Amino acid sequence: MKALSDMPIGFPGLFGGIEINPDPIALHIGHGIYWYGIILALGLLAGLLLCMKQAKRFGLTEDNVMDVGLWAAPLCIIGSRIYYVVFYLDLYRNADGSLDWGRVIAIWDGGIAMYGTVIVGILVALVYCKIKKLKFLAMTDLCVMGLLIGQCIGRWGNFMNREAFGTDCSLPWRMQLWISQTQTIEVHPTFLYESLWNLVGLLLALFIVSRARRFDGENTCFYFLWYGLGRAWIEGLRTDSLYLFDWTFMGEPIRVSQALSIVLAAGAAVVLFYNIKIRHRDGSDLLIRQVEAAQAAAAQAAEEAAPAGEAPETAEETASSAPEDAAQPAGESAEDAASSAAEDAPAETAPESAEEPSAK
Predict the structure, then answer these.
(1) Neighbours of 53 (CB within 10 A)
(2) Cα-Cα-Cα-Cα dihedral sign, residues 261, 262, 267, 272
(3) Among 210, 223, 216, 218, which residue's Cα sits nearest to residue 346?
(4) How far apart are the C-alpha atoms of 56 and 62, rounded to whole Å?
(5) Could you give phi then psi for residue 241, rounded to 5 degrees?
(6) What is the value of pTM for the model shown?
(7) What is the secondary structure of 203-222 as a DSSP string?
(8) Residue 344 carries which DSSP code?
(9) Is the Cβ–Cβ distance between 153 and 36 less than 8 Å?
(10) Residue with more model confidence, 148 or 305
(11) Angle, alpha carbons 120-125-129 (nearest 5°)
(12) Are 257 and 355 in contact (CB under 8 A)?
């Protein structure tokens, strides 16, 4: 079921029935510059800025964030499109069964999926960390906070497009949409549910989980647990889900994102339980702890090497004068120094994954 994009959006249960009629296209140039794309870009920018600001808390640098962001942005768009097309493949076939490649690449007509973005984003981060010899799970712990704020903002693009809504609803905050010139429906505003769910998750990750991390990967596990639970619930309300081909479970078609969300949430819960309750991780091997130790050692060495009669720098002064270079051996870059320490940390794994039309 699709809503007409040129008709008003109403909220009959709020404030006497408010109604707005935003144009999905911000600028009528070429294929059109849609608000959806602009809002996604704002979400990407907000996520990038947040990750840059938080990078040092994870033992990383702003340059690390920028490098990953520059590679991930275009590749994640491609990944989200591929994910969508794979599960809606019949929509992109010609009459003879062959693929219509022109329609496959016509992303301006809508059709991307958030989990495709997440999957490709994880792969980009993995490759980058391998090349730069950085601790992968420290990077994902940082990046998932950018994902949460990006998803929180990005869902409002669905609102502008009158899409990603839910089933019939009579609640006070129900949303009214036109599906023809004479017929309306009143539905769950699932775009809003997910936006608010991600906002709460971001606040929890930013102010509680990340500040009490016991192992690199804990933030990542929290993301998949929190987002997975919320997405599994919200996806069950939606009317435009991607389905797992023609497979069924207990007589019902399987919603791809719902099934994946449940698997990821369960996997994240297992990893959290194992690391916290069985291994009793205490945060001593976090990448940030290794970087701090390396900086302290460099400050101590600088103090001991200070010429007689010359006031040695304090550890804080040494670290602040070269926050990214402290503790590096001669001839070794700052990034390599932190990376070398990171490589010695025990390898950990966390559930991996990533929606949406235009957004599914």
Answers:
(1) 12
(2) positive
(3) 216
(4) 8
(5) -65, 150
(6) 0.82
(7) HHIIIIIGGG-SSTTHHHHH
(8) T
(9) no
(10) 148
(11) 150
(12) yes
